[in-house]
Amino acid sequence: MLAYQSNIRANYLSNTSSSTIRARVDVQFFHYIVKIGIGTFKSKPPYKEYYLEMDTGSGLVWIQCDGCTKCFKQTPKPFPKENSSSFHPILDENKPLLYECTYQDGDSTNGMLARETFYLRTKTGGLAKMENIEFGCGLHNVMKYGDYKSNKIAGIMGLGWDDISLVKQLGPQTKGKFSYCLPVVSSGKTPSTYLRFGDDIVHNKNSKSTPLYRRKKKSHYYVELQGISLDKTRLNIGPDVFAFKSNNRSGCMIDTGNPYSRIIAPAFDILKLELEKYFSRLKGLKKIKGDLGLELCYERSKAEGFKNLPDITFHLQGSQADFVLKAESAFEVVSRFRLIGFREYFCLAMIRDKEMSIIGAHQQTNHRIIHDTKNKQLVFYPEDCSKNP
């Protein structure tokens, strides 16, 4: 994916231990974003603040830079690299080292690799200063963020397996661990939570775990999905349906950069059919064509929210590794007033995929998710993320 060989240098922190580093997580248009400080300027504070999308499905950390030849709209303006005294392009034979990165949805960025000073918050509310962080300075960027009015996403924070990802660059103090708790996106104000690293992560006695895999030296985190249940009934889907095949895009990833989960077609068809049977037994429902790009949607005249909607469980590898999706993580519910009166709509918040499965951000909500890259484990347990400090 990246046209360079990464050469990670030691990073330094001033006045703090990196094990206390955290970044505040907010939401923009179903994308979970984190705020960082970057650069060194003659101003107070001495850095510029930007929001980056938190992406466990890629490795590169990058930000749109001033001077971009293809730019997407953002607030504030692109990073003014020329004015930062700590900005240093990475050179190869006296020429800037370039990168290219293309994402699964067709978005892309390319530009120059550089080193810069980054700032994150600490557990006590102070600042952690991290020098010589390697990142991409985006100069030709095609991103769908720019289609949104008042877009404030300026780039991506890659948290994948690669040495260039932020979790790897932050060094041994993080112990190779990061954690998040994603709140359900609501029509009101979605509460903020924190992306945490190292000793800032709290384990719970009820936590479950499943192995994390890396495939073909890619950035993505893979898990082994072995089956799906509707409420407590296991569906007739064999584990081989989800298996990783060495010759193509396959298996099951866990990825915060995908808003909705993608389920491989044979399994999706069975899940959809069983849901249709389930909802056929309920009164007052009318099957409709959804406008969220989702396949299975219903209309009802009463405001019921997530009541009467079933749990869906992803059975992951391990004796106690059931990832249970409560209704608010499995479905989307939308209310609208029309000429005929109040109507509520709900849809299965998952998408059919021809080749593979992905556990997306919406399905990860209201769980504490811990990526332990050193021990190659995904640790998780239910948590009310609206109350997460």
Automatic annotation (TrEMBL):
Q: Which residues form the Peptidase A1 domain?
A: 32-381
Q: Which source organism?
A: Rehmannia glutinosa
- Tell me the superkingdom of the source: Eukaryota
Q: Which family does it belong to?
A: Belongs to the peptidase A1 family.
Kindly give the Gene3D superfamilies that the UniProt entry links to this protein.
Acid Proteases
Q: Which InterPro entries match?
A: Pepsin-like_plant (IPR034161), PEPTIDASE_A1 (IPR033121), Peptidase_aspartic_dom_sf (IPR021109), Plant_Aspart_Prot_A1 (IPR051708), TAXi_C (IPR032799), TAXi_N (IPR032861)
Q: What is this protein called?
A: Peptidase A1 domain-containing protein
The alphabetical list of record keywords is: Aspartyl protease, Glycoprotein, Hydrolase, Protease
